[in-house]
């Protein structure tokens, strides 16, 4: 395999902590253990880029896995070996429980089907996670022939265990130092390779899905849901990468196992693990009626109360499941929480506790081509870094740089901040390292989109308190307010209710003898310089004329429209996007003028708004002759407001009652009036 730039960087930055991820393939389905167990051994013997050392290490790993993992049908062989030699080494998941009759602990080794194995109390106390879900370990199992002869004797006993996870204290220092070798984009790709995927085959949206899946590992009490098509690896990260994660298959859970056992006071999964993932979430159920309410309370506060005092825990709740239909159809028949169990699917209070809704449909169906054959961090090192990052916060250092729009409630802000914090810790873990505006804006956009997806479903259920979903942000004092949408709600060629960025506006041309009426979007950027540059190639002659009219009116009415700013000190880059058969751009003069003013003033144009109107050189407005038809098209395209010249008022009296109820018609009398009505307050 040829080493690329990121491989070379990682070899210098993380010597001894990287492993070639395709080495897993020869072991993955051969031995009955998760990926991180195999990588634990690969990291011990193959953490190098020198090929002959890798091959020598592979032989050792192969021998150990062959000798220590119990495949189906080999149970009696291992027991016999223990009886014959007195002790046998194996790799297995170990759980334990207190035997109330004898007051001693008994271990359970599933691969040998042994459920009454002696284990010293001090070993249990040192590794108390074996009392809840258990964990993988290298185990020395002894056999005592003398005990075997006793009545009800238990000859098998645990002599020693070594948990399969890293225990170094300085892992974060290694991570901080290694991160310095990478640019942001290189680090993103290396992080994706570290969880076994090949970034070059993933879209930006798919990469973002993967990064948000990682957040519960680095952020305390992070609640996440991911629904989407089957086969996209939704549970892979929670099952294969980290020993600090626990997967509940089929969604069945007990209150005692999840929270606390009232019989013996034993703490549950949320106290023992960083992440608890419910797979196949449509089947989530508890053994007690109040189970969902206890979980809801825990997701809100990180506390649950069973007995006298409240108990705090910081395990995050992750729920993953499948749509049986595509996302568009799911939205037509229900809402995006539709596949959830009935106790949760229409409960807006439960939804409010979800910090991010991950769009599983943005991730491809996995096949072997998506798995990388390059180097990444060894899983146990990565998992240890992630669990230590939970003690660190990055959000406090950047909060003063972010200004959220008025649509965010207190819970929205909390959710968004937790997502930003998690993404920043993943991307720039060292709390001393600065966070660039580019990185901060990337994290803010993802956080707002993934939280807004939750809010949109609450709105669909019909709760009035959730009706304002226009999430926006501003970075820095001079930043422009930017609105963040959830792409699945609107197709590109329909008009959403979200305000548009400065310089952008939707418009309809009036049509005519040689041209049909059609929907256009004008996109304009203003920068230092002078003049106008139309980006369309070739430029439609009629659109060029519309731009010329708009430019001349802007210069002649500069003070009236944009105050003390000088339009001639700006170069305008203009793009016309056509969404119908009409391509000429005829009659776009007013839309271009408003777009130019919006770009200079750095003000958003109103959401849901569509503009009609053609200018002439003197600044007067052409007559609109087909206003009723234009209003009907505006409704069809999803507009909520039609902004038209006053000369169309009489015609619009003929608009049907049905159409009148579907659109807000606003009239303008001149250029300034139009600008005031088009821009967001």
Task: State the strand order across the main sheet.
Answer: 22-23-21-20-24-25-26
**What is the CATH superfamily classification of the largest domain?**
P-loop containing nucleotide triphosphate hydrolases
* Oligomerization: single chain
Measured distance between first and last alpha carbons? 58 Å
How many beta-strand elements? 26
Could you describe the largest sheet, including whether it forms a barrel?
Answer: 7 strands, mixed
| CATH second-level architecture of the largest domain | 3-Layer(aba) Sandwich
Determine Rg (CA atoms, Å).
31 Å
Q: What's the number of structural domains?
A: 4
Uncertain segments: none
Query: Average pLDDT value?
Result: 89
Helicity, as a percent range: 25-40%
Specify the overall morphology: elongated
- What is the CATH topology assignment of the largest domain? Rossmann fold
How many H/I helices?
A: 28
Beta-strand level of the residues, as a percent range?
15-25%
Organism: Chitinophaga sancti
GO biological process, one term: proteolysis
GO molecular function, one term: ATP-dependent peptidase activity
Domain Lon proteolytic: 521-679
């Amino acid at each position: 395999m040829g080493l690329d730039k990121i491989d070379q960087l990682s070899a210098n930055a993380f010597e001894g902590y990287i492993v070639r991820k395709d080495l897993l393939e020869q072991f993955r389905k051969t031995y009955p253990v998760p990926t991180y167990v195999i990588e634990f051994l690969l990291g011990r013997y193959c953490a190098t880029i020198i090929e002959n050392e890798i091959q020598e290490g592979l032989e050792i790993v192969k021998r150990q896995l062959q000798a220590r993992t119990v495949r189906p049908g080999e149970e009696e062989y291992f027991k016999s070996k223990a009886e014959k030699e007195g002790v046998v080494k194996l790799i297995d998941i170990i759980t334990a429980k207190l035997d109330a009759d004898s007051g001693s602990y008994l271990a359970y080794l599933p691969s040998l089907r042994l459920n009454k194995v002696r284990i010293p109390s001090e070993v249990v106390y040192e590794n108390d996670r074996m009392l809840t879900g258990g964990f993988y370990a290298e185990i020395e199992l002894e056999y005592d022939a003398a005990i075997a002869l006793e009545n009800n004797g238990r000859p098998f006993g645990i002599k020693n265990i070594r948990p399969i996870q890293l225990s170094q204290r300085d892992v974060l220092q290694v991570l901080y130092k290694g991160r310095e070798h990478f640019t942001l984009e290189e680090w993103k790709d290396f992080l994706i390779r570290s969880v076994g995927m090949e970034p070059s085959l993933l879209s930006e949206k798919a990469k973002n899905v993967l990064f948000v899946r990682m957040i519960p590992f680095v952020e305390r009490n992070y609640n996440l849901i991911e629904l989407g098509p089957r086969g996209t690896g939704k549970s892979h990260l929670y099952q294969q990468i980290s020993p600090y994660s626990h997967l509940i298959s089929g969604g069945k859970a007990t209150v005692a196992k999840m929270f606390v056992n009232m019989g013996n006071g034993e703490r549950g999964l949320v106290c023992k693990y960083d992440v608890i993932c419910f797979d196949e979430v449509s089947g989530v159920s508890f053994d007690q009626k109040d189970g969902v309410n206890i979980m809801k309370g825990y997701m809100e506060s990180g506390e649950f109360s069973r007995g006298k005092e409240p108990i705090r825990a910081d395990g995050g709740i992750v729920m993953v499941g499948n749509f049986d239909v595509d996302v568009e159809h799911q939205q037509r028949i229900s809402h995006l929480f539709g596949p959830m169990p009935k106790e949760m699917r229409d409960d807006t209070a439960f939804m409010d506790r979800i910090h991010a809704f991950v769009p599983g449909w943005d991730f491809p169906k996995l096949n072997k081509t998506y798995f990388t054959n390059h180097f990444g961090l060894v899983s146990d090192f990565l998992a240890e870094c992630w669990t230590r990052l939970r003690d660190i916060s990055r959000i406090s250092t950047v909060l003063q740089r972010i200004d959220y729009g008025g649509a965010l409630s207190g819970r929205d802000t909390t959710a968004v901040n937790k997502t930003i914090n998690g993404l920043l810790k993943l991307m720039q873990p060292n709390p001393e390292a600065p966070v660039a505006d580019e990185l901060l804006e990337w994290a803010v956009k993802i956080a707002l989109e993934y939280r807004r997806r939750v809010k949109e479903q609450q709105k669909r259920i019909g709760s009035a308190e959730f009706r304002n979903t226009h999430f926006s942000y501003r970075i820095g004092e001079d930043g422009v307010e930017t609105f963040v949408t959830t792409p699945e709600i609107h197709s590109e060629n329909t008009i959403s209710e979200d305000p548009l960025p400065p310089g952008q506006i939707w418009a309809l041309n009036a049509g005519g003898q040689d041209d049909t009426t059609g929907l256009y979007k004008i996109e304009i950027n203003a920068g230092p310089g002078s003049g106008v540059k139309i980006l369309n190639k070739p430029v439609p002659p009629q659109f060029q004329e519309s731009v010329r009219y708009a430019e001349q009116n802007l210069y002649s009415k500069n003070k009236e429209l944009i105050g003390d700013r000088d339009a001639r000190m700006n170069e305008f880059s203009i793009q016309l996007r056509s969404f119908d058969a009409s391509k000429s751009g005829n009659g776009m003069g007013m839309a271009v003028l408003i777009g130019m003013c919006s770009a200079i003033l750095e003000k958003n144009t109103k959401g849901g708004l569509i503009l009609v109107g053609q200018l002439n050189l003197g600044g007067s407005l052409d007559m609109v002759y087909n206003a009723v038809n234009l209003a009907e098209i505006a409704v069809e395209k999803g507009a909520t407001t039609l902004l038209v010249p006053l000369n169309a008022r009489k015609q619009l009296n003929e608009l049907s009652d049905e159409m009148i109820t579907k659109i807000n018609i606003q009239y303008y009398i001149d250029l300034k009036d139009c600008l005031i009505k088009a821009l967001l307050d």
